[in-house]
Amino acid sequence: MSRRALVTGGTGFLGQRLTLRLVEEGYTVSAIGRNTHVGHELERMGVRFIPLELGDAERIKEICHGQDTVFHCAALSAPWGAYADFYASNVIGTRHVVQGCVSGGARLVHVSTPSIYWNWRDRLNIKETDPLPSKQATAYSATKLLAEREVDQAVEEAGLHAITLRPRAIYGPGDRAILPRLIEANRGGYMPLIRGGRSMLDVTYVDNVVDALLLAAEADAAALGGKYNITNGEPRLLSDLLARLFALLEMPFRPIPLAYPIASAAAGMLELNARWFARGKEPKLTRYTVGLIGRSQTLDITAAREMLGYKPRIGIEEGMKRFAEAWVQEGGSSAAWT
User: Fold this and answer.
1) Pairing of strands 200-201, 107-111
2) Alpha carbons 293 and 223: distance in angstroms, whole number
3) CA–CA dist 23, 19 (Å, integer)
4) Which of these, 83, 166, 188, 214, could form a disulfide with 114 (CB 3.0-4.6 Å)?
5) Cβ neighbours for 300, distance < 8 A, ≥ 6 positions apart
6) Is 57 exposed, middle or buried (0-12, 13-18, 19+ CB in 10 A)?
7) 58 Cβ partners below 8 Å, 6+ apart?
């Protein structure tokens, strides 16, 4: 009998890629999402598409029934926005998915984030068990941490079979956030290069994350209840990543060298302007974004290698080439992937 899987956020960047891979692997797949255009494309691939918000607890419970595995990829992910919106999507939505898995007896593979580690300082080789900051940096990371606790509580109290992944900076063809934001900033002449681009970063090619998700779905009992960092395992200097990206795109790289304090102060002013005069519209630069590109953060993926058998297949160079080829083919706009 075919294995049955449900993907939340199935029309998003990661969720769509996972959904198509599950079809290739012979799963009977259902996907929840909001993008009906992508949803109809998935239907043509044999996927059961369900246009639905995660706020509908009873409907989520109904859809989870009969699934072998639920991959929870849906989230509100942004460096800016109202806390209430993040809470509704990331905490309440996860709570409903958890309840559906408990009720239906499905394994949950939960996609979280290493943003919860962020403490505004350089941190290298972070392990899953390292202490978390006392205060989360953004509404996104705060609510994703609360979402993890929803999963943990169900594991402890209801015997939920769950694995949590924390993938870092997912990129690849179809990316609508990380690399497109950098490209647009460079085009617009507001690409800050802080501390000379010497920050050390991890990134993760999207298909490597999909591999990790599938491994988590099949992992043995010893891995259940665990949390696992996922990266390419190839930390790089930001300056090297950007130089390679724009070389592949055949674009001039036009960074603005800035000291960290100056960049942070400028971002703070932009945030104030956004709150008071731009009706909350996301500013071109936030203090969190300054931190991400100005401070080092790398992750230890030993646990994923040992407990899940994770091994990144697509290296950074190959992943960058695939992204650049797709970007040029699609006309150089993230709108082509929405």
Assistant:
1) unpaired
2) 33
3) 6
4) 166
5) 125, 126, 127, 128, 229
6) middle
7) none
Read off the amino acid at residue 84. Answer: A
| Share of residues in the chain with pLDDT > 70 (%) | 97
Tens digits of residue pLDDT in 97-152: 999 999 999 999 999 999 999 999 999 999 999 999 999 999 999 999 999 999 99
> CA 8 to CA 31: how far, in whole Å?
6
pLDDT digits (tens, 9 = 90+) for 187-237: 888 788 999 999 999 999 999 999 999 999 999 999 999 999 999 999 999
Q: First vs last Cα of the chain: how many Å apart?
A: 34
Specify the pLDDT at position 338. 42
Question: Distance between CA 337 and CA 335 in Å, rounded?
Answer: 5
Q: How many CA atoms lie within 13 A of 117 on its CB side?
A: 26
> Three-state SS string across 180-242, please?
HHHHHHHHHCCEEEEHHHCCEECCEEHHHHHHHHHHHHHCCHHHCCCEEEECCCCCEEHHHHH
Query: Rg for the chain (alpha carbons), in Å?
Result: 20
Strands of the sheet containing 200-201, edge to edge, are 123-126, 297-299, 200-201, 236-237
Dihedral angle at the C-alpha atoms of 48, 24, 209, 62, nearest 10 degrees?
20
Per-residue pLDDT tens for 316-327? 999 999 999 999
Can you read off the two tokens belonging to residue 312? 């990144």
List, in order, residues 6 or more apart from 156 with CB less than 8 Å away: none
- Two structure tokens written together for 167: 């993938």
Mapped onto helix, strand or coil, the DSSP state of residue 258 is: strand
- Return the CATH number of the domain spanning residue range 4-174+202-235+297-315: 3.40.50.720
| Model pTM score | 0.94
Domain boundaries of the chain, sorted by first residue: 4-174+202-235+297-315
Q: Residues 27, 83, 87, 140: which is the catalytic one?
A: 140
Closest CA to 167 of 15, 273, 323, 289: 15
Q: Alpha-carbon distance 69 to 217, whole Å?
A: 7
